[in-house]
Design brief:
Strand order of the largest sheet of chain A: 1-2
Number of strands of chain A: 2
Structural class of chain A: alpha+beta
Shape of chain B: elongated
Number of strands of chain B: 0
Helix content of chain A: 40-55%
Largest interface: A-B, 17 and 20 residues
Number of helices of chain A: 2
Helix content of chain B: 55-70%
Strand content of chain A: 15-25%
Oligomer: heterodimer
Radius of gyration of chain A: 19 Å
Order of helices and strands of chain A: HEEH
Bound molecules: protoporphyrin IX containing FE
Strand content of chain B: under 5%
Radius of gyration of chain B: 22 Å
Distance between the termini of chain A: 60 Å
Chain lengths: 53, 231
């Protein structure tokens, strides 16, 4: 039943909490993905930039 | 003679169409609108996220058009309808994700420098209008989720005084906002944003040396408009 509700998008979702801090799992995943993309964009070399102005 | 001087001398410009043409060619000559080269500092992944947001927005609009043409009886029931509906949702997620990384990048580069305030402001505008568009989208799910969002949201909107007119529990009204006005608003402000980027050119890095050969013809500090003579 729970999986069905999740699949229908009508469930409250999964919440993680530390003390007073709570966050929905989906939101946490998105935030971590954005932070990872930001970090990677700064450190990964950009292809095809060698030798050109 | 520079192109500007040529434009200043253009004979016979006495109609508003002629004046508009001269003004537009001065502000945004074709080689600035569609350039072939960018300075070397643009060769970084951080500059890709603006285009990422545009790409996602195009998928959002295309999938949204398919949804509207077929209607809820199609996208809530058929398998293909579910797929296009999901494509619409996930391209919105991708757009916000890329938009936020883009915004972080521009924030830490202080990209509003050198007369680019309006670029930043239209960026803030894109963000704000996109949030309203996404909000009205969530109201169209016709499930408990959308009902919950509407009934939580209405209190805030009523408190601001706009709720009697912008009524989030009026499904028909929210549908119209979501499929006409808001997509047009997002599209228009994004176009303005990108045109402004092209007019000013990409902002030089904060620590770029004033003598950098790529910045020649540019005033001594990076805080001046890059194309000072044009603007
Ligand atoms: C729908 C949302 C948006 C789209 C489609 C978009 C698109 C773009 C594109 C394609 C560029 C040029 C390439 C690049 O640097 O990535 C750009 C530049 C820029 N964006 Fe955005 N943007 C959006 C939202 C924002 C937001 C939320 C902000 C900040 C509040 C912002 C601030 C800027 C600034 C300041 C520049 C100019 C950077 C420079 O001159 O070097 N944008 N945007």
């Amino acid at each position: 039943m729970n999986t069905l509700l999740l699949a229908m998008g009508d469930s409250p979702g999964i919440y993680l909490g530390w003390g007073v801090f709570t966050i929905q799992l989906g939101n946490l995943i998105i935030i971590l993905t954005m932070l990872a993309l930001f970090g990677l964009a700064l450190v990964l070399p950009f292809p095809g930039s060698g030798g050109r102005k | 003679m520079t192109q500007d001087e040529r434009l200043d001398r253009e004979p016979d410009v006495h109609t508003w169409t002629g004046r508009a043409r001269v003004w537009m060619l001065k502000k945004l000559p074709p080689d600035k609108l569609l350039p072939e080269d960018q300075p070397s500092y643009v060769a970084s992944w951080i500059y890709v996220f603006g285009m990422g947001a545009i790409g996602s927005l195009l998928i959002v609009i295309a999938s949204g058009v398919i949804l509207s043409l077929n209607g809820p009886n199609w996208y809530h029931i058929s398998a293909l309808g579910h797929f296009v509906n999901s494509l619409h949702l996930w391209s919105v997620e991708l757009m916000f994700l890329t938009m936020v990384v883009h915004l972080w990048g521009k924030f830490w580069m202080a990209s509003w420098r050198g007369g680019r305030a309006l670029t930043w402001i239209t960026g803030v505008g894109s963000f704000a209008v996109s949030i309203v568009a996404a909000f009205t989208g969530y109201l169209l799910q016709t499930n408990f989720d959308s009902q919950w969002i509407a009934f939580e949201g209405k209190d805030a909107l009523n408190a601001s005084g706009i709720g009697a007119w912008f009524n989030v529990s009026n499904l028909g009204q929210m549908f119209m906002w979501h499929v006409t006005l808001l997509p047009l608003a997002v599209g228009a402000i994004v176009v303005l944003h990108v045109v402004l980027v092209r007019m000013r050119g990409v902002v030089p890095p904060i620590d770029a040396a004033a003598t950098d050969s790529q910045l020649t013809g540019v005033p001594a500090t990076a805080t001046e408009p890059t194309e000072a003579k044009v603007n």
